[in-house]
């Protein structure tokens, strides 16, 4: 990219992140005739998944295909996209955005759609099978694996909720306490698990059993093997919010990570900076992320319009 003092490097908006939220924002901004740059490191959260679900008219579409179509759409409106990573952002009259491969660009407004990373439980086989027969969201994948023997690997006592939820999709659910003591479960937890027909197995899980590239069971530390074909886990979310923190955005610590405080349109506490997608919360599915990107972009269009009109009045 060109250096900061070149007019070619000044954009109305730089969108950091080229997933559903970032591309959706870029589409709206491009259609509003704003010069927009998307900086995409190419690391979408749902890359391990073969398909995405629950997005009306896009149900079952592979995530990579969805993003490819999105990139084609934004290009029609003159939006630029570069495969790179933003390493730093500084505030001034404009925002100065530093890129990993060298060079800097300027932006009047920023959209941060950097998402999050899922940190898998430290059990052999879990990370390797994630997105295939190791899953985390029944709304994303429950229909596809309905009625199969499920396992749920507890990361904490809160795993009870996941075990109860997935029992909607299968009557054969085993809840592996792993490193959670049975005493950590409340009496209500145990009664609900029993009512749902969920078997509770104490003891540490040693590994997943995989045969012919297919999950077949869960091996306990004592050597016992429980036949299962699907295992649900609760990854630890790691929000990619370093840029927002560097800009001094107000953050909110939650049980599922630390996220920026935003208004209904994604505006952060930093003037001129919006956030969308999993950068603002763990539960943002693709359809939510796309909606959030749209709302942020529409707000930015209005913000820039008023700023330009006020500047003209001042002149």
What would you note in describing this structure?
- It comes from Streptomyces albogriseolus.
- With 315 residues, the protein is α/β, with parallel strands linked by helices.
- The chain contains eight helices and 19 strands.
- The protein is elongated.
- The two termini are 32 Å apart.
Beta-strand residue fraction: 25-35%
Net shape: elongated
Spell the H/E element sequence: EHEHEEEEEHEHEHEHEEEEEEHEEEH
Reported for the largest beta sheet, the result is: 7 strands, mixed
What attributes characterize this protein structure?
315 residues; disordered N terminus; Thioredoxin reductase; 28% strand; five-stranded parallel sheet; 8 helices; alpha/beta
Quick structural summary:
This is Thioredoxin reductase. The chain has eight helices and 19 strands.
């Amino acid at each position: 990219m060109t250096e900061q003092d070149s007019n070619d490097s000044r954009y109305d908006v730089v969108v950091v992140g080229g997933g559903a939220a970032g591309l959706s924002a870029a589409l709206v901004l491009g259609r509003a005739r704003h010069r927009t740059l998307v900086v995409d490191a190419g690391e979408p959260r749902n890359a391990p998944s073969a398909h995405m679900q629950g997005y009306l008219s896009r149900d079952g579409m592979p995530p990579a295909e969805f993003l490819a179509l999105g990139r084609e759409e934004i290009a029609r409106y003159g939006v630029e996209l570069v495969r790179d990573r933003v390493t730093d952002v500084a505030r001034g009259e404009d925002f100065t955005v530093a890129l990993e491969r060298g060079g800097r660009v300027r932006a009047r407004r920023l959209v941060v759609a950097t998402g999050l990373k899922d940190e898998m439980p430290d059990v052999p086989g879990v990370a390797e099978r994630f997105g295939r027969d190791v899953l985390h969201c029944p709304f994303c994948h429950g229909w596809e694996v309905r009625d199969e023997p499920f396992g749920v690997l507890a990361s904490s006592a809160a795993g009870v909720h996941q075990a109860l939820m997935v029992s909607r999709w299968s009557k054969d659910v085993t809840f592996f306490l792993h490193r959670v003591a049975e005493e950590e479960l409340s009496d209500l937890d145990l009664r609900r698990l029993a009512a749902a027909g969920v078997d509770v197995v104490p003891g540490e899980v040693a590994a997943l059993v995989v045969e012919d590239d297919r999950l077949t069971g869960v091996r306990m530390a004592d050597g016992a093997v429980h036949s299962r074909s699907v295992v649900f886990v609760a990854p630890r979310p790691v929000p990619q919010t370093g840029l927002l923190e560097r800009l001094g955005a107000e953050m909110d610590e939650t049980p599922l990570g630390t996220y920026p405080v935003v208004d209904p349109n994604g505006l952060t506490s930093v003037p001129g900076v919006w956030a969308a997608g999993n950068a603002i919360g763990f539960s943002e599915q693709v359809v939510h992320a796309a909606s959030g990107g749209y709302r942020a972009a529409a707000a930015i269009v209005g913000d820039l319009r008023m700023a330009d009109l006020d500047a003209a009045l001042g002149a």
